[in-house]
Amino acid sequence: MTQFDNSYARLPDRFFTRIAPERAPAPEMVLWNATLAEELGVADWNAEICAGNVIPDGADPIAQVYAGHQFGGWSPQLGDGRAVMLGEVVTDKGRFDIHLKGAGRTPYSRNGDGRAWIGPVLREFIVSEFMHAAGVPTTRALAAVRTGGRVQRERAYPGGILVRVASSHIRVGTFQYFTAREDYEAVRILTDHARARHFPQATNTLEFYQEVVSAQAKLIAKWMGLGFVHGVMNTDNMAVSGETIDFGPCAFIDGYSPKAVYSSIDTHGRYAYEQQPTMAHWNLAQLGSCFVPQMEEELGGQQQAIDALTEVLHSFPELYQAEWRKVFGAKLGISDPAEEDVALIQDLLGLMAKDGADFTNTFRGLLDGSARDWMLDREAFDTWAARWQERRAPDWQEIVAKASPAVIPRNHRIEEAIAAALAGDDSKAERLTEVLTQPFDLAEADRALSHPPTEDQMVHQTFCGT
Prior knowledge:
The protein is of the alpha+beta class. The chain is 41% helix and 14% strand.
């Protein structure tokens, strides 16, 4: 039986609005995560519950309020404009939000319809479950549901709801919302709540901030190691827990380019692949500024607060570089990568960028020698490989096999699955999800899913669902 304990709903009323999901006309399950359902104690849930038509006992549906910098521009009030949090379930693995994304209008919808269409719902389900399988902290997907209604975008699409699971939905933008209103009491309440929930080892505000900074350094390094481009790293899309959230127009790089951008709304490349560490640092600066008033009380002065927070913020580049070195060192089979290995890693990435080599297959191809085949300048690669062979560990193949997936959610494969689902065939989405939840162990029968797109299959832009 599901055990709800809705701690966020016990915070002051200004943190959220109580609201029930809008009724879905004819819910139909598309994808169901049976393993996760068992872990959460919701194995008996059906499409009616997942669509919000039936509220389970103990749930307390709310829409959370937050603010955020969106592509650098300040939006003083955002919030769950198309999502409702049913509540929090408690398991032996911890506390988790269950969130219905695409559940209809809320007070934060800003003239939107509050709905999602099935394409972005499937994209987030597939990608988030791959990320989890690949060892990246992430929100999870419990279910993808057709609502039985239509959603108007550039044309009418079948409506969809994603049942998302997260250790919380507390964002940098949640802190910003209250700071902008000079509601410092709310910032302190939120800090204490998030600290107890995510980083109980932190004994004060500064230690909490240190934990958030460290978690983001680890997260972004893992993104980079997969060639993942989030696409919309606004402050309202950064969870303080350190989980990947709000996949939207995300994509994975095929032919490597450090300047890769896929999001149709990122017209200036603010959130390009190579910019992600910088933008995470920028977002963390915005979070740090929220803590100045309470830190001033804790440390006895504004300058002391600013200095302490700045020192933590300035630790991010070094923390990130250390994590990046671990991630990419493992992809080269180096057991304990040192600072001098950075040049070796960067030189390979430089060759890949020069030749547009496939990101995933090049790194995975180090195992069987096929990495060379993705290069145009093979003589340069051979020179690099001689240096690499001197640095790799005796068990380097085992290290690489665990660090570099054999298959990723290729953009064109996701689009194929969505197109099939629009035509009433969910089998492609089901199969793609099944394969991607074991990304390091690709069966020969599924080998085609590891192939990069042909020229006519390439996906150059990805889109948000709103």
